[in-house]
Amino acid sequence: MKLLRKNTPRWIIFLIDITICVFSVFLSYLLRFNFSIPTHELTSMFYYVLPIILIVRTITFIISRLYAGIVRFTSTKDAERIFLVIFIGSTTFTAINAITYYFLNNIFIIPFSIIILDLVISVFVMTYSRFLVKLLYFEYVNPSGNKENIIIVGTNELAHTVKRTFDNDVTMKYKVVAFIDPSGQNNRNKYEGINIFSSEKLSALIEKHKITSVVFATKFASSEIKNNISDICLSYNVKILIIPEASKWINGELSANQIKEIKIEDLLERDPIKLNKDNIEKNTIGKVIMVTGAAGSIGREIVLQLTNYKPKLIILFDQAETPLNDISLELEEIFKFNDFKLIIGDLTNAKRLEYIIERYKPSVIYHAAAYKHVPMMEKNPAEAILTNVLGTKTLANIANKYNVERFVMVSTDKAVNPTNVMGASKRIAEIYTQALGTVSKTRFITTRFGNVLGSNGSVIPRFRAQIENGGPITVTHSEITRYFMTIPEACQLVLEAGAMGNGGEIFIFDMGKSVKIIDLAKKMIRLSGLIVDKDIKIVFSGLRPGEKIYEELLNNKENTIPTYHSQIMIAKVIEANFNEVNEKIKNLISAVSTYDNYKIVAQMKQIVPEFISSNSVYEKLDNNKN
Question: Is residue 516 flagged as an active site residue?
């Protein structure tokens, strides 16, 4: 084995290539004269043609170092080099013919038919011999009989890249036996000699070939098709693999080690969002942008996406020092972006905020800072008011004072018919910014969406940790459902809505279909290669304080107006008088100093009449109201 893994000396490869050239010349003459070479042509070949061809080939091989490659790792790039070097040599023969024609009384020393035949034969034999050695080597170190059969979903260039990656990696024990075309257009065709099937044939193929893995190698499969294929794979306990984005490939090349098992986030992704990038860039290019909560999952992604639109400066504002430092390193080292300013601060510190806005004069503020954990805020309503209401109010007032162009607030679906303190606090913040917008030059815009995959406190990281610890997975209720959106797509829509808003709107996003949490838990267990209720159990812990079974994006008194973007709608809401709203919120903030939770929540319910507590100690306030 050690001997087989040693590289063949270059001089041997060089001699083999020269031998192939001699063989090619002889075969060319045999073919040209139908395997009966005339004596004068044979003499000419030995005295003139063969020496000229060998000299030219030797020079081109040495200059190009064609012999320097490792034969067992021959790739299509090597085949391209072989063709180019042989073609240059053949072009040289043509030039020699032109010279001899001029000086030797219209005689071509090398027949053109020989030049063409030699070109074709040399390229074919040199390329094929290298690939044959590679094939034999791979078969020796990794016999086909020991390989696992896999299927690639996709028939485009990406699928070809994945197959080539598997073929070229000697450590991989995978053999591609079929391609699946999600569109069904290439059904019954072949791709690199391998049959293409429609997705309807997947079950039969898994059973017939004992498939162990299926690789997604297409960007054009809809989320519905992706989930259908995944469900089939999971029913047969077949691993589902996925490849990273091309931007993450190592030196522009896909490595077999980068092909990983699919995650639940990949299956919950929806079809790509089409953005009006010109509109977003117009709202960003050359401007100072401020992002609050910049170290959080949403704020961080907003910052990263803003770097694509050429801002003059991004102000990253947050109170979490370590995550803020982490994103600064990411911006500098990965995104090569240096036009940013890190500022640690508290939203309720009016003097600090005013200093920042007066000094840097941001044109747009994306306000993503907030407390978002429902059970935590249910126990600490004073902190929910201080950060989510007072913090928003303070920032909005200063934005108004310094005529900031746009103020984009990131809200939540929990603000709709709130059943908990957190949702109600965000609804109050919405009401204040909307009311302030009626008397301000600043355009106050609200964006409202549901749960984002992988965000801090999200159910998916929690389930994943529980699976890694051997279970059980805790689900609060058997019927509980949630809307999900990936962090990137949520932030894309925030930027889009922020650019299109004229002020006063609440933009709601198309969250797709709601997902039953117990189904999500079961799929995550199966994706881990485990069996539900055998390897990992699911237990019901009961609804947490303030938690809803179903979440909404609109309250009963709202309806929507479509926008030019199919995934963004405007919620029609009842307009509030700024002076009345301001007075009520002042009283609410004053109540915080008492730290009387019931008094605080009671005043919240006065501002948001639809706030009806659920599974909470504050339900008695609703009973008293009735």
Answer: no
